[in-house]
Amino acid sequence: MALTMALTALSIDAMLPALGEISTDLNVSSANDRQLILVFVFAGLASAQIFYGPLSDRFGRKPMIFLGLVLFALGAAISGMAESFNTMLAGRFLQGVGAASPRIVIMAMVRDRYKGDVMASVASLLMMVFILVPVIAPLIGQGIVIIGHWRWIFYFFIFFSAAMMIWFALGQRETLAKENRIPFTPTRLLAGAREVVTTPVTVGYTLTAGLAFGCFLGFLTSSQQILQEQYALGTKFPFAFGALALLFGVASFINSKLVLRFSTRPISLFSLRAQSVLSTLFLIYCIVVNGDVSLTVFMCFLALTLPLVSLLFGNLNAMAMEPLGHIAGIASSIIGSIRTLMSLVVGGLIGRAYDGTIVPLVTGFAISAVAGLVVATITARVTSTQAGEAGVQQD
């Protein structure tokens, strides 16, 4: 499950060392336009996620996984043969459409079997394995660029998706029994969407997740320009990025243990509070020194901030999904679409604001953390009030 979900991370992180060469070969005019090679994957994710959940409720989880893997490989083939930047972006969009399947359906499979804090623990374990891909993916991309051509990275994507299809077919059982499958109709899709957007706890934690992932996406899209070019890491960039990804994965593993003892809400609120304070203080420092921040200081900031973001991913998704187990597939799709669209806007603004300094990125981290804390706090209070009222009525 985790490695299949990792298609998104692989399609992003393996490309990072090659963005400079791709933009040169395909005559990309603006330096920040290279970020679109990453952004279009998320655009494909956002546009397709809403369909995979309902379709998996109707046809089963595994067939939708296979469909996504095929589309991902087809998109990789188009991008690998692209002779123009527009063709490259079209292939990347299709890769995102394909990667949306495991991103959504895997969480529905987890919800088929688990709920509550146990679901959050399992989601964090998946994230832990999933995050190992960003640790090694830039190294894979760098190695391919050194020994061959950036187009070979896309051929590697095709091989990887084929291997995952075989492994998933042989090693993963279907989690949605035929008698539990639900017909796919526009009416049901609209009814499910209405239930999602009228459930306060789901809306609140989905918006918080969109802000959290948005600042992370802003880091992803600008990381190559900042670390490889601004700080002149060159071929050392994959190692720096991989070290940060490893910290991200360790935090996910720790979270999988903590949620069973402390529950998801207090851990999430702690993470948001810590991010708000840390990012705001660091932003003030960046302004004071006019953005002239050393690589060591910047890496220390990321080493503290990114693990805090990691604590949110599995927890917020589990809390948003908790009331909607009876429509897990469609709920996962709608929640994923809203979260990705929101993060695409937030992350895109952060990335496109890159001006040769880290100030736009740190500003994005600070604003996202503070806004997320406000939304999560309000949601927690609403949830507590509703729980109290339910208890009174029950008495």
Structure description:
The chain is mainly alpha-helical and 395 residues long. The chain has one domain (2-175, 187-388): Growth Hormone, Chain: A, CATH 1.20.1250.20. The protein contains 15 helices and no strands. The protein has helices at residues 2-5, 7-13, 19-25, 36-59, 61-80, 85-113, 116-147, 151-171, 186-197, 200-230, 237-262, 264-288, 295-321, 328-352, 359-394. 54% of the residues are buried.
Our count of helices gives 15
CATH superfamily: MFS general substrate transporter like domains
Sheet with most strands: none
Estimate the mean pLDDT confidence.
85
Any low-confidence stretches, pLDDT <50, length ≥5? 389-395
The outline comes out as globular
Helical fraction: over 70%
Strand content: under 5%
Number of strands: 0
The end-to-end distance, rounded to whole angstroms, is 43 Å
How would you spell out the order of helices and strands?
HHHHHHHHHHHHHHH
Helix/strand/pairing category: mainly alpha
Q: Specify Rg, calculated over alpha carbons.
A: 20 Å
Number of domains: 1
Features:
0% strand; mainly alpha; single chain; Growth Hormone, Chain: A; disordered C terminus; 395 residues
Provide a compact summary of the structure:
The protein has helices spanning 2-5, 7-13, 19-25, 36-59, 61-80, 85-113, 116-147, 151-171, 186-197, 200-230, 237-262, 264-288, 295-321, 328-352, 359-394.
